[in-house]
């Protein structure tokens, strides 16, 4: 591909790369800038050193005495030696005059003449020479002069003495410094030996260079890979022996030659590699040039004649042209055959080099002049001889023919090739350029132009731009003077070009990659086409298939070409060539195909194939064979279709041929169709049975695949993958059995089943993933909350960083983030990482605050140097607190309490004071732990260890909610459990409570004979065995429930329900009875304690002689179990009334024993049930101290009852209480939205100098008045209000949220735009909508909280002033305000409360009008404007823009969490101040520092613009509309604007791009204004100082229109002031300077006095205008009268009639002005009448000046009247607008400050 074609592709590539186009555009601008600077530099160089161009300055003709053939001319000192050959037939001797003539060049009036100089006395007449000369012609009759030259201080004259050109005799003269020549001899043959044709050595590439492979080649410098095998010479740039393709190919004669048959030489010349190649059996060498920069190869055979390197590694020159390093070639059409390099001449200025090539046979010279700066080669100058003088003047002659002649034309040229001696005669220069030197400057300028050309060259290659970067950098390495201040601009632009070139390399790589793909596709297509075309040999084909296949290949190749045509950067012209070649081949091949088809043997193979198919069909007995037969038939059908298409599309001249061929094809086709039909029928019959079996197998395999796929589908994505795979399989199944309709129903059903199964499975996985992701996110949020609390306690930065680097919580959060990403939930992962990062930055800032502004361990904070405030560390939260008989909602840290109305909560009052579910005043938590362990041991859930304490501790470890203290309660539980286990082993069924056992006994005694009860013993025994054998308690539990139901009915029937302690007793009684019944021998167990108690009663009765009456009473109650129970119980209680009550516990069992007597068989178990546990460590009311021994008395059976009651009743009720309590708290938290009241400063917030030194002290002053400070000097008369005024984006809300967070205040932010202008009450019921009601509720909630609250009303400009007035009483000393909470009106008293109110607003409302604050509120407020510089804080205010913008810029964001001193040091560095990087606390790399410095420099530019915008906004907002001279300016220069632009700032931006970014930002901002976008942008341009002429004109037009509008609206109030002021100026202009002439002085005083009266009269004109326009005419008449007096004074003093006349005209003009004023004051365009009259006055005064100028005695008067003219003209301009000097500025903000 040629260089031009590649450039075309590159242009398209560049056009499609947007990013590259931007950078390329920048590079081109920089290139143009450098070109301009370089041209200027070159012009200055030429001005310093001058330069001579190669130009013809004259022509002349030289006449010789005889006809001759001129041969050469040479400069010898001041003379010219002209040589020629004379052919004189009969002359016996050849004289010196017949060969040489001496001339001197004479110039006269730019006319040149060669005057002959006598030979006598010259060096030609020296005897030794004349002798040798005669001898030459004596021996060599046909000797002829060949060449004259001066070389190495010698004059040489070469004569050919033989037939060959190199048979020479050379005469030599030595040239003395004085100019004299002395003949040496005639043996100078060596002196005329021509120089080498090259200035480099050719290196042979031998066998050592060979690289073997499929396509071997020679490796040259690991850059080029050359071979001549395979029929062509190929040059590759990849060491790839798998492919024979390269970047250059040429055909060679011998296609069978081996790799080492060719002769290959190379030479490395800078970025060029020259190749010299002679393929095998060829005689002509080929010369190639490879360019590393362009990656191209060019064939230039001329370098075989001569090739010389250009200066400064520019390239090479050869006869007929040059090749530059950048790939540029320039050739000339002239014949340069057989020319060889002769000589090179450099000009002393270093700018030009002259290359001479010489053809010795004809004696022809070719002179090539090369300019280093322009890198250009001038057209060659051809001649037969030249002579260059010391001053650069050259004489050139050229023979017009080879015939002898007496007239010889010559040209005089002026060249820059002066001699060094001549150049040294120029006086030295001490200028900047003179010190550098012309040659050095030329080299530098040449390299600059090289850079410029590289920039301008639209080449897409990495090497090109790498070279550009290299060339740019080399300028500073090679030329020290580029660092000079004089070339600072050049240096800057070159640096910019280098930097931009580096940025463009990435884009180039992308474009080049795509282009190389296109080239690769093209090469593959060419190779494939070459293969196809070479395979077409129609002469040797004897089968139709050959022709058909060839046509198919041709068609396919055409389709492939159409495909690659769409590739980007493909060579479409080459595609067209290839396609044309294919079309030509297709036509030729089609014609051959028709001729072949017309022959008899063409279709014979098809007929034979049909016969073969028929035979195969007869033998086919399986579907496989039938399918093969069908495939063969289909292929044959396709071939026949193609033949039919061919015959339809191919051109056939003979119609009969077409018909015959088509008929033959149709006949074959018909037979083929018959064969296909038979095959189909046979296949259907044969395949039906096979298909059924095959379908069954494949359907079963598919079902198994479904099962496997469901198992593999572990994620939703894999579900889709597996489903897609299965659907493809089922589609294949359907297509396979599409001929069998009976299978389709099964296939369709299976498809639906698979789809539904996978969709259900996928949904399950999605739900699981979402649940998992949400659980992870919730866990992470809890961890982050914990992290936030923990980091708040750190006091050292290292501590904090260590925590975030290695703490398990932080690591866990990061691990959760990774898990979320694995779950494909990158949104949550990003949120989590951002949250963690934000909390870290907040922690760093909080720690910095703690170190700098907190005191007393963080409990006190300093706001400014004076005030210290207490810090609330208790976080805002909602809880339930019992107060009296009710529960109340309480907001922690505030005075908010609200009663809860929840009946169920009231019913659980006994649990309000309980803190743990494991402990109550009646049950010790260690008992509960021991009971749980005992129950688990009974159920075989745990096996007690030998170390029982370890078992207890392991069991208690996960029960953290139950509040067990390690070492205390586990110790006590171990002691209790030891006794329980010991007692349990002995007690047996006595473990059940005596009440339960007693009730069970009387129940069983009553029911044992009933049918239902008769089955219980057997069932109990069986169920017990089931539990023992199978560990299944189901049957046992069912029986227990059945017994419990009967028992409950029995107890109710005998009226003993009231005696039961709880439902637990009934449950225990039924379990006890079942356990007793499960014994093989029914024998009930009785405790010794009950036995003793019953015996004691009997003994007491016997001693009292009452036993008989007792027994009689019992007998009467027989059958009445309930009454018997009550009777016996009364006796037993009476018995124990005066005794130890420890036996009262056993009364129910004793009752049963006495009541039942011997009716039930049983036995007494003598087991100790009473336990005393000592050495306890816990604290509980049940634990008593006895003689310094802490003990707990426990009855075993009573313990179990208490344990069951606690577990099943207390714990359940307590958990219900907690559940209810938590649900109420959660519900109330949602209702109150507490999280929105917690201050959360932005993560980008930076506590900067402005806050520390300005804002925080101001805020501290105000809060000291509102909340009071820490210490004895705290104010008790709390009052006040803080009001912050500024445009949006200055950080009002962020600032106050930060203060609230540091003070620990609740931040109750009220969004005033939601309230709007219709809300004037604090009653939510009167709100116009839900959002307004919500904001009012928040205000009232803040008042309800009372304490520890910051009430922040944001954007108050959107509210009604009457609404704001509601807060007036809150801001004065009463500190009271009326509100409405829950529909009830209240008066809130804030005296002594930690409560403050802040209001914030914007100078403008949403409609663009100025906002007015109620005076009464403003008087009570401290008002500050955050957008306005306070006092001497200008520097830190400006600095705050940079500080706040740090986090928005990705380069500067890390600085926000580092030491602030680093930030200030780096900003100083960006400002150009001297700073030491060793002072930085953080270790910065050099590259990082440079990038930070660049970004800060650009941010300083942005800051400057934003500050100007801010100042103009504040200034405009403070103006009253009545006094404006231009439209209001509403663009903002806030922190928000700064941050938006900061995030777009990049170190790579240049100044132009930075300013464009700023302009684009405000362009977008202006579109959002309610109006006035154009005038705001024009004002911005004025502020930036870059208004264009068009913009200035438009701005003037807008301001004039605005002033006119204001003038028309306020004319009556301003006209008088303007006239008075301007006439005052005229008065000053009339005052004369001191003069020696008294009359003139007196006249001046009179004029000044009269005009003073005019001014005084007009001072009150505004009052006159107010009283009525009609009186204006009176005022003007007074003016006219005064002017008449002036005229009279002038007349008396000067008697100048012309002056008097002019004054009269002025008076008339002013009179007309008065009338017009009175008539047009109310009209909108006053200047329509004013301007013509004032213009007339101006003209009259000009005439006055002319009149006075004619009188020389009144010169001073003329000068003063000239000033009058200027004054009146100025008055005319000003009266057409509203003058600034006539206005009063009214600042609403200043007014507010005065009121406050």
UniProtKB/TrEMBL annotation:
Residues 1283-1402 form the ATPase AAA-type core domain. Pfam families: AAA (PF00004), DUF3686 (PF12458), DUF7902 (PF25472). InterPro entries: ATPase_AAA_core (IPR003959), DUF3686 (IPR020958), DUF7902 (IPR057224), P-loop_NTPase (IPR027417). One of its GO terms (molecular function) is ATP binding. Residues 34-480 form the DUF3686 domain. Residues 601-684 form the DUF7902 domain. This is DNA repair protein.
